[in-house]
Amino acid sequence: MRLIHLENEDWQVGILPDTGGSVAYGRVRSTKGWVDLLRPTPVEDYHRSGACASFLMMPWANRIKEGLYHAMDRTYSLRTVQDDGTARHGDVRQRSWQVIEATTASCVLSFSSRDHADLNFPFAFAATQSFGLEGSAFWMEASIQNTDQVPYPAGFGFHPYFVRSSPPPEVMLPCEAMFPLERALPIGPPTKIPEDVDFRTSRPLSDAHLDHLFTQRRSHTPAHILFPAHQQQLTLDADPVFAHSLLYTPTGEPFFALEPQTNANDGFRLFAQGIEGTGVFVLQPSAIQRGRFVLRCSNFSS
C-alpha cells in the first residue's frame, strides 16, 4: 500500500494513492508535539476509504436515492449499497490513482474512468487530485473533466473526519439555510435553519446525532472548528463551487465530519425537478470543473 508523506513545520499529512487518494492522517504541531486533528486511520485500514481521515466523493457527492441518476432527460440505474439502497459517495474513492508528481510538501494524482470497465457511472471523465502544504495551510484540490461526447450533470466533494474529544469541539458554519432531510435525502427545497442546529455563531457539538445538509454558504466567510482539548483551531475555506456543507456527528463516536460538497444530496433528482440551489453543474464535452478546500491551523489559549 503506497503512502505519500507530506510534512512542513505545521503539518504532517499522509496520502493513499491506491485508496482513491484518501488522506490517512492530518496532524498539526502543537506546544505538546504533533496532534491529530483529522481522524487518524489505522494502518490495517489503509485500504478502506470509509475508515480514512478524508476521501474524495466524485462524480457525485453523498447519496443518490435508489441509485437513480437523472441526466439530460434520461434516468440511469447505478449500483446501490445494501444499508440504505442509495448510490453513495461516487466511484473513485476505492480506485487506484496514478501519481503524477510527489515532493515532501505536495503531490498530484490522476484518474481516468476509461481505465475501469466496471465504473458505476454512465459517462466518461478524467480527474485530478492535488494536495499541498503551505505554511499553516493544508489544501486539497479536485478537478473533473468531461471526456465523453455529450454533456452531463456531475458533482464532487471532500469527506474529512475530525477528532471529537472532551471538551467537545466548537463549530462555526456560515450557511444561511438547510435542506430538510429524511434518511439523509432531501424532501424539499432549502428552509430556514432551526435555532438548535444554527452554527452561524460558534457553538460546541452536543451528543445529539446530526446529519444535516447546510446550504447558501457565505463563500467569503470561512468555517471554524475549535479543539479546546488541544488548544487548536482550524479555519476551513472552500471555493464558491462548494455551495453546501454536510455536518455529520454520530452519537458516541470519537469523530465527526464537516464536508464541503458542490451538489446537494440527491441533487440530480432535485435539479431535474427544477429546484433551485442544488449545486449541480452540467459539464459540456472537454469542460473542467475544479475546487479547492483549505484547512489552516493555529494555536489558541482557552
Give a written overview of the molecule.
By secondary structure, the chain is mostly beta strands. The protein is built from one helix and 28 strands. A nine-stranded antiparallel sheet has the order 10-11-12-13-28-24-23-17-21, with no helix packed on it. Strand 25 (244-249) and strand 26 form a beta hairpin. It is globular, with a radius of gyration of 18 Å.
Map the helices and strands.
Layout: E1 4-7, E2 11-16, E3 22-30, E4 33-36, E5 56-57, E6 63-64, E7 68-71, E8 74-77, E9 87-88, E10 98-102, E11 106-112, E12 125-134, E13 137-146, E14 152-154, E15 157-158, E16 161-163, E17 170-172, E18 175-179, E19 181-182, E20 185-186, E21 203-204, E22 210-217, E23 223-227, E24 232-238, E25 244-249, E26 255-261, H1 267-272, E27 281-283, E28 288-299
Major beta sheet, strand line-up: 10-11-12-13-28-24-23-17-21
Multimeric organization? single chain
The Cα radius of gyration reads 18 Å
Strand fraction equals over 45%
* Count of alpha/pi helices: 1
User: What is the count of β-strands?
Assistant: 28
Helix-strand pattern:
EEEEEEEEEEEEEEEEEEEEEEEEEEHEE
Report the CATH architecture. Distorted Sandwich
Uncertain runs are none
**Structural class per helix/strand content?**
mainly beta
Which word captures the global form?
globular
- Overall residue-averaged pLDDT value: 96
Work out the count of structural domains. 1
- Determine and state the CATH class: Mainly Beta
